[in-house]
Amino acid sequence: MRCRARLCQLAPLLAAAILGACGGAPTATDAGISPVSTTATSEAFVPRFFDIDDDLTIREVSDGVYVITHSFPWPANSMLVEMASGELVLVDTPYTPDATEAVLSWFEDRLGARPIVAINTGFHVDNLGGNEYLVSAGIPVYGSEETANLLEERGEATRDLLLSWLQSPEDARFHDAHAELAYVAPNHLFALDQGLELQFGDEYVQVYFPGPTHSPDNVVVYFGDRQLLFGGCMILAGDSVGNIADADLEVWPDSIENLLQFDVEMVVPGHGDRLDPGLLSNTLEVLAGAT
Fold first, then answer.
1. Most exposed of 3, 56, 203, 287 (fewest Cβ within 10 Å)?
2. pLDDT tens digits, residue range 14-56?
C-alpha cells in the first residue's frame, strides 16, 4: 500500500488558527545568529531558539529536530530533521522562497552541506510557499498528486482569500509579497491514498493520509524511530478551528482518530508552540465544540 524511494545521495479565521511565539532565557551566540531563549522541557534536552530575522525563528526541540516558525504575517511551522545517515528532511516550508533559502543557508552554515529532501503536507501557502527556491536549487520536493491538482485548481482562490485579510496599512509588505508569490507544485508526486515511505540509512519516514481534515489533501509525516509526528495544519494547538475554507468538519475527527495508531512522544502542529501528544485529543475537543 505504500511506495518506497531509497535516498542515499543526496482577517479573522486564519489568524485565530495560527498563533505562536517563543520565549525563555538566553543562550550563547552561535555562528552570527542570535539565539533568543531556552526553556527546559525535560532533563534530557534543553531546547534552543535562534532568530534568523524579525519574522523567522528556528527552535531546536530535540537532537537533530528543528521547528521553523515563519511569521509572515501569522506564525506557521515547518520542520527540519537531521537523519542519522546525514541527510536533512524538510517538512513543509516557510511562506516564501527567500525565507526558505535563508533557513537552508543557516543549516548549511551550522551543519555543512548535506543532501536535502523536502515534503509538502498540503497545497496551502504555509505548506509549500518556498517550493520555488527548493525546485530551483535541485532539491526533490515530495507531495501528493492531489496537492498538485488542488494547487492548480484552488491556488488562486486561496491567495485571494489570504489577501482579503491583509488590507490594513501595517500588512502592506505581507500583502505585496503574497500577491507576487509564485505557487510551485511538488515535483515528486505520489498517490494520496497510497502515501509514501522514504528510507534514510536504517531510518524510515512515513507520509500518511488519514482522511480529509483542514484540507482534502493534508498528510502527516511520521519519523517512527524518533516517535515524532509532523501533523501540520490538521492538528489544532489552540482553542479555535480557524480557517475552514477547504475543511471537511464532518470527517476531520475520524481522520484524527486514525492517527492514534502512531506511537508518538512529540507532535508538531502547523501553528502554535505546543509539541506534546495531547495535541491529538485537543484537536478532537476543539472540533467537537465547532460542530
1. 3
2. 333 333 333 332 232 233 333 333 333 446 789 999 999 999 9
Contact between 53 and 33 (Cβ < 8 Å): no
> What is the rounded CA–CA span in Å between residue 193 and residue 162?
29
244-253: b or e for each residue (b if 16 or more CB lie within 10 Å)?
Answer: eebbeeeebb
Pick the CATH number of 4-290 from 3.60.15.10, 3.40.50.970, 3.30.70.330, 3.30.300.30: 3.60.15.10
